[in-house]
Write a structure and sequence with these properties.
Elements (H helix, E strand, L loop, with lengths): L19 H8 L3 H9 L6 H24 L2 E9 L2 H15 L6 E9 L4 H10 L9 E5 L4 H12 L4 E4 L10 E5 L1 H15 L6 E6 L5 H17 L5 E5 L5 H14 L3 E6 L4 H10 L7 E4 L3 H8 L5 E4 L2 H15 L10 E3 L2 E3 L6 H4 L4
Parallel strand pairs: 1-2, 1-3, 3-4, 4-5, 5-11, 6-7, 6-8, 8-9, 9-10
Antiparallel strand pairs: 10-12
Helix pairs in contact: 1-2, 1-3, 4-12, 5-6, 7-8, 9-10
Length: 361
């Protein structure tokens, strides 16, 4: 017998569990013709046989989709980020859930802000434990050995993980989704090189935490590209303030006092309200100032001219890509899980996406 709808040796086409009327409608043939094909009776043309075989394959595919659409996957989203970014991830996740097929996906959020690696590792270890079911993890966390070990333990329990916007090396995660961070840093260097052309001075580069691999890659991309487009330009790095406005204002004020030649800013990890406050108080307001992500705070800063430009990526697309990789890991979609990186988009006050414009004023 030949499977997948092809004819048996006796000329019949295996019908499986589909009704003859459904096969006829799918094939565009009469019920009588389909009946002849399915039972190997004389009078059915080769074209009719092929049409029935094709109809059966398509009906099988649709039945699989219907069956999978009734399956629910529970995904745990573990985030270490300031509230403004957690809110953005929540909104993006909720929007992306409506576009993920064929299974139904539900999410649970586990939110942290500046947590130590041991606490984040415990959060990952709790996923799928104590009788709770979990089919996957979406993770934003520092690149730390304790976190990586917890991700590996989750994989051993059959719970795949996808890292979001910043990777966790050597963790056994199935994919990374989010911004191409090195390209973002290079883009920032290109923009600052143009904004500061002919003007001497240093660039201030701020990070939320040096343990976030994504921000380290942004910094490396910035420095590497500045050597090409603006050789000799010094870079002053500050941070480890977890994107908090007050903490960032303090470290930036100290940097401005130590380096009075700072003439531009690249903020890789948030706290831009605090950075802007420190710049203004030091009489440095109006310098070229690049930020990341179109969260609520940055939309206001961009619209009012405090931020010169924002390097943006669509979190909805990132979250959808992450959920797709988890479906692939469970073999509910074809293909192996694959890392997907978003290209940075340069957003100014004049090309702010229309759907975000209202929130910028």
């Amino acid at each position: 017998m030949v499977r997948n709808g092809a004819a048996d040796d006796d000329g019949r086409v295996p019908r499986r569990n589909h009704r003859i009327r459904d096969v006829a409608e799918q094939a565009g043939l009469s019920v009588a013709t389909v009946d002849r094909v399915l039972h190997g009776r004389a009078g059915a043309s080769p074209r009719a046989v092929r049409a029935v075989e094709t109809a059966l394959v398509e009906l099988d595919r649709q039945s699989t989709r219907l069956r999978l659409s009734r399956r629910t996957l529970l995904v745990d989203v573990v985030l270490d980020a300031p509230a403004r970014f957690r809110d953005a991830v929540r909104a993006a996740t909720e929007e992306s859930l409506t576009t993920v097929r064929p299974a139904t996906v539900r999410v649970r959020f586990h939110e942290h802000d500046g947590a130590d690696p041991a606490e984040l590792a415990r959060a990952v270890d709790r996923v799928g434990s104590g009788g709770r079911v979990s089919h996957g993890v979406v993770l934003k966390a520092p690149d730390d050995a304790q976190v990586a070990a917890a991700v590996a333990r989750a994989a051993d329990r059959g719970i795949p993980a996808v890292t979001l916007v910043t990777d966790v090396a050597r963790s056994g995660r199935v994919a990374y989704v989010g911004l191409d961070n090195r390209a973002a840093g290079a883009t920032a260097a290109y923009l600052l090189g143009g904004f500061l052309h002919g003007r001497e001075g240093a660039v201030l580069a701020s990070v939320s935490h040096r343990a976030f691999q994504g921000e380290q890659e942004r910094f490396e991309g910035l420095v590497e590209r500045l050597r090409v487009v603006d050789p000799g330009r010094a870079v002053v790095r500050v941070g480890d303030a977890h994107g908090d406005d007050d903490a960032m204002a303090e470290v930036v004020a100290e940097a401005l006092a130590r380096h009075p030649d700072i003439v531009g800013v690249y903020s890789m990890g948030g706290g831009n309200g605090g950075i802007a406050r420190a710049l203004e108080q030091a009489g440095r307001g109006g310098v070229p100032f690049l930020g990341h992500d179109l969260d609520a705070d940055n939309r206001v800063l961009l619209r009012t001219g405090v931020l010169t430009a924002v390097l943006h990526h669509d979190l909805r697309a990132d979250l959808r890509a992450g959920l797709v990789q988890l479906l692939r890991a469970h073999r509910l979609l074809p293909g192996a899980p694959t890392s997907t990186m978003s290209a940075p988009q340069v957003v100014t006050p004049w090309n702010l996406p229309p759907r975000l414009w209202a929130g910028a004023v």
